[in-house]
Amino acid sequence: MKYTSMILLLLVLFVVLGISAQGAVKPDDFLSRKGAKLYMHGREYRAIGVNVPHLHQAYIGTWLHIPMKYGTNEKAKQAIVDAILDAQKSRIAFIRFFASPGYPRDIEMSYMKDREAYWKSMDELVALCREHNVKLVPSLNVVMWHSIENFDEPRQAILDPNSKTYKAAYGYIREFVTRYKDEPTILMWELLNEGMLASDVDMKDSKGLPRECYPADWTREQKILSREDSFTWAMWLRIYKEQTAFIKSLDPNHLVTSGDAGTRQECTSRRETFPDFKYWNDTLRESIANNLASQPEPLDVYSYHIYGSNKKPEEMLNWMRDISRATQATESPVFIGELGQWDPSFDKDPQGKWARQAIDLMEKEQVSLAALWVWHFNWQPDLTFTSESQPALVKRAGDFNKRWAGLK
Hints:
Layout: H1 2-23, E1 32-34, E2 37-40, E3 43-44, E4 47-51, H2 55-60, H3 66-69, H4 73-89, E5 94-98, H5 104-109, H6 115-131, E6 135-139, H7 147-151, H8 164-180, E7 189-190, H9 233-250, E8 256-257, H10 267-273, H11 284-293, E9 302-309, H12 313-329, E10 334-342, H13 353-364, E11 369-372, H14 391-404
Parallel strand pairs: 4-5, 4-11, 5-6, 7-8, 9-10, 10-11
Antiparallel strand pairs: 1-2, 2-3
Helix pairs in contact: 8-9, 12-13, 13-14
């Protein structure tokens, strides 16, 4: 009898452990890189996703434009659920979204008011995407942390470990990254949106955020910025290096990308003449060199934002080809974090002609990742699209993901 009981106990343990092992996260559930290629589940991984910038803020009801665009918080939340369901139906691989708490009013309404509820809502969103096989690229966006408005510090305070801005920003990164470091639904981390476009742009005498971005009881006048609210080229490189290293110290599983759009066409002139700006455009060689130098190690994946036109389709397609080849020559994968079109925009071109050409080129040039701009985002009605408004484009993206991202 004793032996029978022991055998039954061992069988139960075997079943339980077997189930646990089957459901456990494995190393190849996460994105990895080898040279200029990405891998997942033992095979090369390439994927097309979409941008839903307000994904979390609309879901929790803090997005500034909810009254104008949705009417109620309930309708905004349902719109986000609908966007995720449409992504699953359309074989969209991932969603890129702006993952900071937002403006000062949004921070006060959510993250500062009830941190536990804030992260619970993020958990719900991640779980919803996990359930529907849609991965996420959170753009952490904490460089500014609205330091002027919240802490009365210049934006450069992000470079000072003793500042309130630095401690708040890095504290948020720590909370976010440690919470989801073992979560395969997170495809990779992104530092922020289009940082290098602000490189060597003198902010002196510019205006800060408008009144509606503040809490209701805010009494200060609109802030006038100073030169200490500007970031030089060298400062951005330092921010990228330090924040990437910090994320990697917390999370051994996920890759990190910058979120950059690429450098400005006058990048060299800004860097060499700041703050007394004298304008000239980069040559092609200067532009490629600046772009390659702008996203330093230990970043894993280069990010660019590319928008094209049906009127001159070859112009941006050629740039996409050239910068992708140059980046891959450095043995770095390419992420086109925003891939969109204008002139005509999606509302006037239901075939998404240029965007489909860009996906064709992406496949030919072995570009790893792209996120179409913009999905279920009624703040930009001319650029937004769904599976209904852009069936040809969505089918092209879905076919790509079936072939390269394993989406059936």
